[in-house]
Amino acid sequence: MLETMEKTSAMKDYLVEVNRILEKNNYSESRLIPILQEVQEVYKYLSKDMITYVASSLGVPPSRVYGVATFYAHFALKPKGKHVFRLCDGTACHVKKSHGILEALYKRLNLSAEKNTSDDLKFTVETVSCLGACGLAPVVLLNDEVHGQATPEQIIALIDKIEAAEKENK
Amino acid sequence: MTTINLEKVAAAFKSASEKLSRRIIICGGTGCMANGSMLVRDAMAELLKQKNVDVELELKTEENGEHCNFTGTYLSKSGCQGFCQRGPLVHIMPDNILYTKVKVTDVPEIVEETLLGGRVIERLLYETVDGVKCKGDHEIPFYNRQKRVVLHNCMIEPENVNEYIARGGYFGARKAITEMTSEQVIQEVIESGLRGRGGGGFPTGLKWKFTLASKNDKKYVICNGDEGDPGAFMDRSVMEGNPHAVIEGMIIAAKAIQANEGYVYVRAEYPLAVKRMRHAIEKAEEAGLLGENLFGTDFGFRLHVMEGAGAFVCGEETALIASIEGKRGMPMPKPPFPAQCGLWKKPTVINNVETLASVPFIMREGAAVYRSCGTEKSPGTKTFALTGHVANTGLIEVPFGTTLREIVYNIGGGVTDNSGKLTGRDFKAVQIGGPSGGCLTKEMLDLPMDFDTLKTVGAMVGSGGLVVMNDQTCMIKIARFFMQFTQNESCGKCVPCREGTKQMLALLDDIIEGRATAETLELLEATAKAVQLGSLCGLGKTAPNPVLSTLRNFRDEYEAHVFKKTCPTGECKALARPEIVADKCRGCTACARKCPVGAITGEVKKPHHIDPDKCIKCGACKAACRFDAIIGL
Amino acid sequence: MNNTTATMTINGLKVAIGNERNLLELIRKIGIDMPTFCYHSELSIYGACRLCLVEVEKRGIMAACSTKPEAGMVIHTDSKDLRMMRKINVELLLANHSRECPSCMRSANCTLQSLARRLGVTEVRYKQTQKNAPIDKASPSLERDPNKCVLCGDCVRVCTEVQSVGAIDFAFRGANARVAPAFDKNLNEVECVNCGQCAAVCPTGAIVPKQQREQVWSQIHDKSKTVVASIAPAVRVALGEMFGLKGGENVAGKLVTALKLMGFAEVYDTSFTADMTIFEEATELIDRITNKKTMPMFTSCCPAWVKFAETYFPEFIPNISSTRSPQQIYGAVARETLPGKLGVNPENLVVVSIMPCTAKKFEAQLPKFKHDGRQDIDYVLTTVEVSQMISSMGIRLDELPISAFDMPYGFATGGGVIFGTTGGVMEAALRYAVEKIEQKPLASVDFAEVRGGTPRKEAEIEVGGTKLRVAVVHGLGNARKLVDDIKAGKAQYDFIEVMACPGGCVCGGGQPITQNPELARQIRAAGLYNADKTQQLQKPQDNHLVVRCYEEAFGGCPGSHKAHERLHTHYQDRAQLFDAQEIMLGMPGEGKVDVVVTVHTVKQDGENKEAALLSQLVAYAKQQNLRDKVVIAASFNPARTNDGKVCVAVGDNVAEYQIDGDVAASAALKELTGLIDAAVK
Ligand SMILES: Cc1cc2nc3c(=O)[nH]c(=O)nc-3n(C[C@H](O)[C@H](O)[C@H](O)COP(=O)(O)O)c2cc1C
Ligand code: SF4
Ligand code: SF4
Ligand code: SF4
Ligand code: SF4
Ligand code: SF4
Ligand code: SF4
Ligand code: SF4
Ligand code: SF4
Ligand code: FES
Ligand code: FES
Ligand code: FES
Questions:
Q1: B325: left (phi over 0), alpha (psi -120 to 50) or beta
Q2: Which residue, of B392, C353, C450, C535, has the greatest Cβ tally within 10 A?
Q3: What is the DSSP letter of C342?
Q4: Is the omega angle on the peptide bond into residue A138 within 30 degrees of 0, that is, cis?
């Protein structure tokens, strides 16, 4: 349900956009990954129908596109929250106790590894391995913002801030 | 298009930079930018302008065909300088001052005191472990004990191709294209002894030779910038800080194997690296350094950037190729090797970022100069990402053959405790080569680090991640961490890796959670061996390494878990059996007051006691005890 | 390579290298049955099961399936390490497997099971990790149990590489990796054409033909029912393999005895209705040629091919012969004549078809083959199912005496018998058509050009002064290439036989599993050609009982009105199979006006006008504040259009609108917004 709401408010020329992406990539099967990346960039996630649309436009079986989309960690087949925490659990961050932050986030947002997006589609918590900023371990990305040498308190404070700001806007 | 005159460009840049009254280099790597380095730069530019100092953010080197006459302050950025922990970093030239951890709020003081007043601000300087303040990087052991070849150019402005040229960039490519045959290029690389930095250490020249020998009208060069090893970021910093070196290396490789098209495959977790590589390619094309008819010859080379989509296994060559072809990144059996049948079934050379970035130097300076550092069989330098329980974390470059001790204690500044403080904790091990590598112990601190020596102790150079661990680290948990990683990242194609890593993880959990028996250990070892021997690709073949090497080097720790059901470091909660050492306990009662379940009893000034039936192993008491009297947690 | 001298050493034995493509073939050639899951001589090398590992001196452990033999190579197929690895490998698989052998279709014919036994796996030391994934039982043809899958990928490769369908593929990765149709749908919801080739290559019980044994037993045991069966040609030359007889041996007579022992009232030969198929199909061909109707004509007796064409080449639907398959003609004949002949109440007549095929199970349940509310064919049993039913009674087929088929539908010519192999339908049709056109007896009934395993067989036959260009393909990948060639004008034919399974029905998805499909195809086909020779008659037109059948029940001759009604069919455009709809505006709900624009996904020349129209409609609805009143959606169609029209539904009002050119487009928009306005009021 929310899926549809999100889509209609965020996108104007829905298919025009995906067609532009396909056109730009010459409708080439070998460009499948960049195409999916760009489609996801615009639509935030890869819906079932969007995958089918891309597959049939490229003339490949939907099962193949599904296979590719589910292979790579970056493709989301479900809508993500408005704010995405990406917590590094690479070696450097791990030995600097990144899991403490993860636990704190899960607890604060009532999420888990299985259910990583809140019902109101506000927050998503993901783990990634190494963001290449190991010198700053442990590292947390909030959307595109890097937070280095992070502590659980500091990250929870970010959530509080977002929630406070959103309350104000209402 | 007219052919670029490298000498002219270099001269123009040099003349322009000589006229500068000051150059301030602000680190523009991922780490420092995350900490606001670009805000520092903007604030500084703004303030300097207010103070009527001429400022440029981009240095023009020629104006109307004349060398540029700008004499003000050039605020440039750089790629990652490897010391992100202390970032944002600000270098002030020619004063040669390095300020660390600079915040926007420090800018007025820097402008007033240093830039206008010529005085050094002590509090922004780096302070060594022994409390010595260092004015510039030349005084900092972290830097002055390194030998920076690949990273050398990381102080240049990565978005200015002219500066790269002024430092000798593209001269190597020109030499290879205009003066040498493919065979001569390969011969030079063979003589340099350059070995692949992607993990395997395969001689680069030989790889090129095989690919040249595969006759085909179409061939490809691929730069492997997937760098999936968690805890390593060498390739990122090279792509961010010195993208043209990678491009030049690829041009030379293309000349060597007679390819005319290439791909740079970059992890998508590295948006800045992607951006800088794309920008650099664009600039190189504009300058006629990429495209058709390079340097007036009929040799041409085109380059594309492809972003990964999040799969560690795509660092493996055949999986990487599958990924470029738009497929699931599942490795294929070798043979055939990419040298015979690679991208689109055409002969393909795949090299690591650092390998390729080493090539221009070899072309320009010659094999002999390259060989002058490093060891006989492992010439040159190697970058490492030094992380974990060590005072100075960051990116370092040292000649092959440097000892671990030098790296951990002198460059790294010593072993820290879990909170990052130097409190005299002991060194326990270093994990080298990430999830496919092994651990090095105290006994190996004086081993020269090179490809072959490391192999003899069951470890490998790998990608170059070095994770230092102190004596409070449970090696089994570390082995489990890597196992979890490889299990998550296995592509799932072949049986030993897909099923074996899953079962090894379950066996390690049995050990950590106290369910293990002698059979568990036996089965773990047998499975490790089967996975190692039987897996299809390098991921599976090396996945058991952390387990095998900890089993070899820390067997007693495994046995303590299995037979005594204790974790010597107390990290494994399920095995924790906290006890108070009567000799050490002063009876201060701090622990008893913190215990949430009232498991601790005892009289003031008398040794306390923990009731194991009540204890929930929360660890609060241990944290509270100032006398280290509580063990087994 | 120099074939005469090159040798290598296997386990100390010097072996000459022939033209083997890999070490595995050579090892097997010298009589060592190297265990494998993922090697299949006709599929690409995959290298995943790691069972074929060997030790190559100086090089270490390598996979035999992906390594070429080289002169001087010294290898060992067994060693302490290799043994240990294979055993652990099997144990690991078993730990992630639903070990229900006694109740598994593939028990006793399962590579995993037999390997465990061969390697002496007596316990599984690992934790059981299998997750009880749901079993896909929705398809009428196949059943998929992911809990028994070893991820060897054979099915994926056969479906993609051989059949060019790609209904299933790998999804997810690592421990979660699985083989699945897109979005983990059921097989019957995707492009699967039911050919069953995936089941034929699967080394375990993870994909098996759908079972109807129990249903058939209960009909047999119901005393009020009369159960009749008909046996397809290919069944008789493969069934014996399940009872230790040689492949290719014709066991039709024994099978009739067995079925009688089981309680079937009558047992017929589907070759009879195959003859009848030729009457209709060849008549249709002659009609198309003489009356210059749509050409070329494709055969229609393979339901997997028919579904394939309906899905990927709907524009060729008029080219497919409208004649029903022999199975469905049998169904029609049985329903029309047997109640009278056998004196049974039509309701109590149970019609069973015994087939080498899984697609026939799909075909039998198609609504178009229902007559008076009942399926013409009630149940379809595969060769393997029948063999299991036979065994379940303890009948030893190999020792049975033979019986004759029941008449009149047990009499067939050789033409009907060879239907079971690639080229057979074509040959039978030529026997009929050439004689009919030339109006004189055939000199020879053999058309050797259309026999054999070549992927595409072509021939030009002189008939009545003109040349009849025919082609025979088997394997849907080959069919796709042929149709593409026709579309591109690179090939021209008059008559084309297509069989979905490589080799035709002899290697159908319901046949006994074989380790060497190429050999199985040859010997089973040879069995059918032998049967052709030993049959009394060879030409379908000589089957006087077919002629009588026409007289009794089908209007006297091929092509009659009644024949058209009962022996012919029509086809369905399945290109819309991707029934994906993307909602662009609004939320589905009661009382809302649905606006659906069909958008073609195939690359358009220039801007996609349909998408543009769609976004204009969305913009209009937003501007008019109709969010709560309409739902605007795009429906995707993978076909190509060039006619400049778009199909739009506003509520129940479906129509096409011209949109090429600005004037037309704005007129269409105006009309549509008008319709929307009217509908929301
Ligand atoms: C699982 C796996 C991951 C790998 N990841 C990388 C990587 O991130 N970067 C890299 O350069 N090489 C990686 N490699 C090694 C490459 O396959 C390849 O050997 C290397 O890029 C060759 O370059 P070189 O000869 O310059 O070392 C990986 C190998 C395996 C098996
Ligand atoms: S070893 Fe692991 S990653 Fe490599 S092919 Fe096998 S399953 Fe995939
Ligand atoms: S570990 Fe926790 S529960 Fe146990 S004694 Fe210490 S404080 Fe009490
Ligand atoms: S805190 Fe330490 S010293 Fe104090 S009572 Fe507890 S164990 Fe003894
Ligand atoms: S697939 Fe094989 S091993 Fe698995 S249950 Fe069936 S017969 Fe047994
Ligand atoms: S083989 Fe063993 S496990 Fe299987 S049914 Fe027979 S007795 Fe039971
Ligand atoms: S039955 Fe045929 S089309 Fe369907 S999945 Fe199996 S191989 Fe593919
Ligand atoms: S279903 Fe069968 S053929 Fe397909 S991957 Fe699984 S085991 Fe292999
Ligand atoms: S070729 Fe025969 S067995 Fe195969 S699908 Fe077609 S009719 Fe069935
Ligand atoms: S390990 Fe966390 S950023 Fe590298
Ligand atoms: S990003 Fe500035 S030192 Fe690494
Ligand atoms: S047959 Fe060689 S790996 Fe499976």
A1: alpha
A2: C353
A3: I
A4: yes
Rounded to whole angstroms, what are the CA distances from C398 to B531, C244, C257, C490? 46, 8, 11, 50
Confirm if B633 and B617 have CB atoms less than 8 A apart: yes
| Interface contact B492-C175, CB threshold 8 A | yes
* Beta strands at C142-144 and C207-209: parallel, antiparallel or unpaired: antiparallel
Domains of chain C: 7-78 (3.10.20.740), 90-209 (3.30.70.20), 214-567 (3.40.50.1780), 580-680 (3.40.30)
C142 lines ligand 12 (CB under 6 A): no
Taking CA atoms only, the protein residue closest to ligand 9 atom 6 is C302
Please choose from B621, B630, B633 the residue to mutate so as to test ligand 3's pocket, defined by most ligand atoms within 8 A of CB: B621
DSSP code at position B326: T
The domains located in chain A, with CATH, are: 2-71 (1.10.10), 83-169 (3.40.30.10)
Task: Measure Cα distances from C443 to C275, C462, C532 in Å.
Answer: 20, 13, 17
Q: How far is the CA of C371 from the centre of ligand 11 (A)?
A: 78
Kindly provide the b/e burial profile for residues C24-41, where b requires at least 16 CB atoms within 10 angstroms of the residue's own CB: bbbbbeeeeebbbbbbbe
**C70 to B110, C8, C27: CA distances (angstroms):** 71, 7, 13
Helix axis angle for C270-290 and C544-553, nearest 10°, is 80
**pLDDT tens-place string over residues B405-460:** 999 999 999 999 888 888 888 999 999 988 999 999 999 999 999 999 998 888 88
Poorest-confidence range of C388-397, C459-468, C484-493? C459-468
Query: Three-class SS string for A125-169?
Result: EEEECCCCCHHHCCCEEECCEEECCCCHHHHHHHHHHHHHHHHHH
| Contact residues, C window 175-234, toward A, CB-based 8 Å cutoff | 180-183, 190-191
pLDDT (mean) for C448-462: 94
Q: N- to C-terminal Cα distance for chain C? A: 81
If DSSP codes are grouped into helix, strand and coil, which group holds residue A119?
coil
Report the half-sphere exposure of C334 (CA within 13 A, side-chain side). Answer: 34
Q: How do residues B28-80 score in pLDDT, each as one tens digit?
A: 998 899 889 999 999 999 999 999 999 999 988 887 778 888 899 999 999 98
**Does the Cβ of B466 fall within 6 Å of ligand 2?**
no
B492 in contact with ligand 2, CB cutoff 6 A: yes
Predicted TM-score of the model (pTM): 0.92
Instruction: Determine the distance separating the centroid of ligand 12 and the alpha carbon of C39, expressed in angstroms.
Output: 5
CB-CB neighbours of B179 under 10 Å: 10
What does the alpha-carbon distance between residue B60 and residue B370 come to, in Å, rounded to a whole number? 33
- Is there a contact between B348 and B219 (Cβ–Cβ < 8 Å)? yes
pLDDT in tens, B521-564: 999 999 999 999 999 999 999 999 999 999 999 999 999 999 99
- Where is C233: in which H helix or E strand? none
Helices (H) and strands (E) counted in chain B, each on its own, are 25, 22
Residue C359 has pLDDT above 70, yes or no: yes
Interface predicted TM-score (ipTM): 0.92
Percent of residues in chain C assigned helix, strand, coil, to nearest 5: 40, 15, 40
Q: Report the amino acid identity of residue B592.
A: A
C126 pLDDT higher than 70: yes
CA B44 → CA A19, A159, B48, B52, B101, distances in Å? 45, 31, 6, 12, 15
* Phi/psi of residue B409, nearest 5 degrees: -90, -40
Query: Which one of B84, B329, B389 has the shortest CB-CB distance to A71?
Result: B329
SS3 state at C29: helix
Q: Do C174 and B500 touch (CB under 8 A)?
A: no
Contact between residue B315 and residue B227 where contact means Cβ atoms under 8 Å apart? yes
